[in-house]
Amino acid sequence: MVSTKTEIAGFEFDNCLMNAAGVACMTIEELEEVKQSSAGTFVTKTATLEARQGNPEPRYHDVPLGSINSMGLPNHGLDYYLNYLLELQDKEPDRTFFLSLVGMSPEETHTILKKVQESDFRGLTELNLSCPNVPGKPQIAYDFETTDKILSEVFAYFTKPLGIKLPPYFDIVHFDQAAAIFNQYPLKFVNCVNSVGNGLYIEDESVVIRPKNGFGGIGGEYIKPTALANVHAFYQRLKPEIQIIGTGGVLTGRDAFEHILCGASMVEIGTTLHKEGVAAFERITNELKEIMAEKGYESLEDFRGKLKYID
Ligand code: RRO
Questions:
Q1: How many CB atoms are closer than 10 A to CB 156?
Q2: How many Cα neighbours within 13 Å face the side chain of 94?
Q3: Which residues pair with 127 in a beta bridge?
Q4: Is residue 115 within 8 Å of residue 78, measured between CB atoms?
Q5: What is the three-class DSSP state of 41?
Q6: Which residues 6+ apart lie within 8 Å of 272 measured at CB?
Q7: Where is the active site (predicted)?
Q8: Which residue owns the Cα nearest ligand 1 atom 9?
Q9: Which of 34, 36, 121, 184 has the most beta carbons within 10 angstroms of its beta carbon?
Q10: Domain ranges within the chain, ordered by starting residue
């Protein structure tokens, strides 16, 4: 029997596939739909302290090889997601869900994380260090000094299981430097990767999204090689207590298989979920299981991280 069950920070999940933050997770209705699908769990839209409208529309556009977005962190505010999760964890005590969050400033991030710390939330928290789309706000994780400072401050009070969502890195030295920072902290996971920031997509003579003159985060087929490189680079460098969530370019079971081969313990689906709806979870799970069966693998442990090199 082939199984795609997995575990993150000691929490078990029936399936290793879930949504990527930002897709199908803004409202409780969307989260319920993912919950009732074949996905192993869900993550909420990244929450700020207060609700935000985000950037003007059009701000998300599906394109043949992926997607471009400049949503600008629209969300219903921390309490909306946290209160929902607090109710849900009593209704479904056997399942674990992810809460994504970030402040509009380091101070706000601490205010939010302290609220989560003081709440009864028993799930996993993902701190988004990689939103590419808020005008004037750089992606935190591209600034290693600030990232180190935030993490050192966070772990002075935050004792619940915490991971971080990372932007893609493109230089071996940056993998080394980032991993050296993350290895200093009791992180439970890193999630590689957020969208490839600030691409530009053109149709006829025009951009396709309104904010930032059309610049936006790229997802989908375009980004799989970059996503796999980041998953594997961190798998090679991080201490084994820090697990990897693989995100980026998952259209098929083969893509999920490759993320796991690179070291991912969980695989997230963004652009494909936006294009196809929650039916994508069942399709991709079946495709992944078929590949595993053909190769004689029964569980993810049989091939996780076992990427082969050419001597
Ligand atoms: O809301 C967004 O514009 C957004 C976020 Br917070 C993120 O982390 N990644 C992304 O592609 N868009």
A1: 8
A2: 2
A3: 101, 164
A4: yes
A5: strand
A6: 220, 250, 251, 280, 284
A7: 131 (nucleophile)
A8: 131
A9: 34
A10: 6-55+74-198+220-302
Q: Which residue has the tokens 């070291």?
A: 263
Question: Two tokens at 95?
Answer: 């399942």
The counts of H helices and E strands in the chain are 9, 15
Residue among 48, 129, 191, 195 whose CB has most ligand 1 atoms within 8 A, to mutate: 195
What is the SS3 assignment for 198?
Answer: strand
Burial 164-191 (b: 16+ CB within 10 A, else e): bbbbbbeeeeebeebbebbeebebbbbb
> Cα(44)–Cα(21) distance, rounded to whole angstroms?
6
Distance CA 71, CA 75 (A): 10
Angle of helix 144-154 versus helix 172-182 axis, rounded to 10: 20
Q: What is the pLDDT of residues 269-291, one digit of tens each?
A: 999 999 999 999 999 999 999 99
- Kindly state if the Cβ of 139 falls inside 6 Å of ligand 1: no
Say what the pTM is: 0.99
pLDDT in tens, 82-109: 999 999 999 999 999 999 999 999 999 9
Token pair, residue 203, equals 């149709």
Q: Residue 300 has which token pair?
A: 């993810």
Residue 131 annotated in active site: yes
List C-alpha distances in Å: 126 to 41, 98, 166, 196: 14, 7, 10, 19
Looking at residue 138, what is its pLDDT? 87
Sequence-separated (6 or more) residues with CB below 8 Å from residue 131: 46, 73, 102, 137, 139, 194
CATH class for the region spanning 6-55+74-198+220-302:
alpha beta
- Res. 80 pLDDT band, cuts 50 70 90: very high
**Res. 244: pLDDT tops 90:** yes
* Cβ contact 239:215 at 8 Å: no
